[in-house]
Amino acid sequence: MSIPTLNAVRTLHVEVWSDIACPWCYIGKRRFATALADFPHRDHVEVTWRSYELSPRTPVGPGRPEIDMLAALKGIPHDQVKKMFAQVTAVAAGEGLAYDFDRSLAANTFAAHRLVHLARTTGGAELAERTLEALFSAHFEHGADLGDDETLVRIVSGAGIDEEVVRAALAGDVGADAVRADEDEARALGVTGVPFFVVDRRIAVSGAQPADVFTQLLEAGWREANPLQTLATADPDAAACVDDSCAI
Question: What's the whole-model pTM score?
Fold first, then answer.
C-alpha cells in the first residue's frame, strides 16, 4: 500500500511597496533584509519591490534641497526640520546607513521607479533589488540628484544595466505602466503609507518595523503557506509519550 506524501513546500511571495524618497523605506528595507537573512526558509521566499510615489506632484527635473522642500511642505522652520532629520539619521545609523540630509535633494521619483522595473525585466528580482539599493544609497547617503537623467544613468548602470539601455529607457516610457499598475494595486489594497510589506496577499505590516517583527511576519506567512499535515493512513491511537509521562 502506498503512503501519501506531505505537500511540497510552497514559496512565499513578499511584496513591498516603497518610495525611493522615503527615508523609512530604506531603513525598513535594511531591517527586512536582516530578518530574511536569518529566516531558515529564506531560499523559498520571493521578494518583489513595488513602486509608490509619496509626492507624485513634485516637479520633474533637477531636485531641490530636501530641507527647503520639507520646510515649505509642512510650514515649519528649518531648525525644526533639522531636528527631524537628526532623529531619522540616528535611527538609520543603527542599521548601518549613513544618511546625509545636508546634501539630500528632493526630486520626482517616477523615472527612478521606472528603472527599477527595467532592472526586473532585464535581469530579474536580484537586479531589481540591487538597482533599488543603489538608488536609495545614492539619494540618502550621497546627495545624488534623482531628477537628473545622467545621474540616473550613472547609478543604474553601476548596478548592472547597460548604460545605453538605461538612456533609451529614460528617453521613452519603459516601465511607466508598471509603476502605475503598482500604485493602482496599492490603492486597491488600501495602502496609504510606505513601506508596506505583504505576504501572499494575506498578511501585512506597515512601516519600518524592527527586524523581529519582520521575522514574525515571515513565520506567520510560512505557517499559513506550509501547514503541518498528518498522514491520512496514520493511526490516531498509536502509542506515544506525552510531556513527562510515557505509558508502557
Answer: 0.90
